[in-house]
Amino acid sequence: MSEKFIRAEEVAEVMEISVPYAYKIIRKLNQELSDKGYITVTGRVNREYFNERVYTVKAPEKKEGED
Predict the structure, then answer these.
(1) What confidence tens digit (pLDDT) does each residue in 21-60 have?
(2) Better pLDDT: 48 or 67
(3) What is the pTM of this model?
(4) What is the DSSP letter of 9?
(5) CA separation for the pair 63, 67 (Å, rounded)
(6) Predicted local confidence at residue 30, as pLDDT
(7) Nearest to 4 by CA among 51, 57, 54, 53
(8) Would residue 43 be called left, alpha or beta, if left means φ above 0 and alpha means ψ between -120 and 50 degrees?
């Protein structure tokens, strides 16, 4: 089950940031999840959601008639 969540130390290592800043990012991501109705765990964030928010870059949506 430990693979389901990512902790601040790993967030800090992956993003090359300080651990206190990693906690700040985790709080932000957990707040987003909480606003969507999900249950969150303090100091940890769902690994899948973390990867989605950090690594996924959405291409701008094309408007009708654009190539």
Answers:
(1) 999 999 999 999 999 999 999 999 999 999 999 987 665 5
(2) 48
(3) 0.78
(4) H
(5) 9
(6) 97
(7) 51
(8) left
Cα separation, 31 vs 14, in Å, equals 21
Is pLDDT of 2 > 60? Answer: no
Question: Would the pLDDT of 9 be above 70?
Answer: yes
What whole-number distance in Å separates Cα of residue 43 and Cα of residue 26?
7
Instruction: Show the beta-strand stretches assigned E in the chain.
Output: 5-7, 44-46
CA angle 27, 32, 36 (to 5 degrees): 140
Q: Which of 11, 21, 13, 18 is nearest to 46 (CA)?
A: 11
The DSSP line for 43-61 is TEEEHHHHHHHHH--PPPP
